[in-house]
Amino acid sequence: MNLIIQGLEIENRDLRELAKLAGANEIERITGQAFRLKNASRRDEVPEYCADADLDFAFVEQTAQLADFGLVAMDMDSTLLAIESIDEIADMQGVKPQVAEITQRTMRGEIVFAESLRQRTALLQGLDEDALQRVYDERVRLSPGAEHMLQRMKSAGLKTMVISGGFTFFTDRIKKKLNLDYAAANTFEVANGKLTGKVLGEIIGSSGKAEVLKKVREELGLKREQVIAIGDGANDLKMLEEAGVSIAYHAKPIVQENATYAINHVGLDGVLNLFG
Question: Is 128 a catalytic residue?
Answer without folding.
Answer: no
